[in-house]
Amino acid sequence: MSPGFQGRPRSAEPALPPGQYLTEDFPVLSAGPTPKVRPDTWEFVVTTEAGAERRWSWAEFTALPQDTPTVDIHCVTRWSKLATNWQGVSLDVLLDGVDTAAAYALVHSYGGYTTNLPLADLRGGRAWVAHRFAGRDLPAEHGGPARLLVPHLYFWKSAKWVRGIRLKTMDEPGFWETAGYHAYGDPWREQRYTGD
């Protein structure tokens, strides 16, 4: 290499998945009305493929060990928001000690929404049930009182108003997946729709 050679200058633009644009806003997108779920009536249930359940009330859930991830999020409608700050409980904590041979999860929300994920994508510090955003309680329009947060996948996989996860031995498509969205949804591979 020649002395003084610096290579190509680095772009000042942040790295975004293909086809995405950067936003400073936090757009609100929902397929139906916003459920009004009060924390005193909220519960979260993990159900194994054998039907065994573990459940938490709001007080029990918020008493669990908390993480404060800072992550980039990417919506299938092409916006990305970088370095977002959350607080919530890791799925590693919620799944700790659960006896399961399942490879998949079907996430359920208040209001009837569902989405499917490989169980491996909910483990290893990659997913949370988040209840605070940017230092404040998560507002209902963004999925409060609690939503799933799986930032390495398109944001429709981060189900709003989450109420439980059913562990499954076979993959079962959720709401958007049955409507033609990709079963996995990796933004870096532009897995927006079936066949991508």
TrEMBL record:
Residues 32-176 form the Oxidoreductase molybdopterin-binding domain. Gene3D superfamilies: Oxidoreductase, molybdopterin-binding domain. It comes from the Bacteria. Pfam families: Oxidored_molyb. SUPFAM superfamilies: Oxidoreductase molybdopterin-binding domain. InterPro entries: OxRdtase_Mopterin-bd_dom, OxRdtase_Mopterin-bd_sf. This is Sulfite oxidase-like oxidoreductase.
